[in-house]
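Fold in tokens:
===
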Amino acid sequence: MGREIALSTLYSLDFNGVLYSQTGTPDFPTLNDEEKELLDSETALFAKYLITGTLEHLKEIDALVSSFSINRPLDRIDIIDRNILRMSVFSILYDKEIHASVVITEAVRLSQEYSREVNYKFINGILDSIVKEHS
């Protein structure tokens, strides 16, 4: 659930063109007040961790994704997939408590659930290549 909230927040910021200008952690703009109240603290903390970490390292993450996505510039990657990649690359590079294979599995699952049918293969390939280079 934390990954989904982080993804929807990053998506919202990217869609509205404020991803690079965002300061601090947004207060989950895609959730209504009732959903925020029902959110358990552990899920909220994990989502904020993913959002904040991704935003703090956004330029580095985008450059890395771009270097592996040779045939598809970053701005041509579907917005949902672009943010799945960003969040996942942050986890792979900076969260050593979660194994890279778990991060990739979750990224593929998110892509299968929220994106077009074949995009999960693209995400899997990019993340797998990043893991191989940075392990």
Summary: The radius of gyration is 14 Å. The chain is about 70% helix and 0% strand.
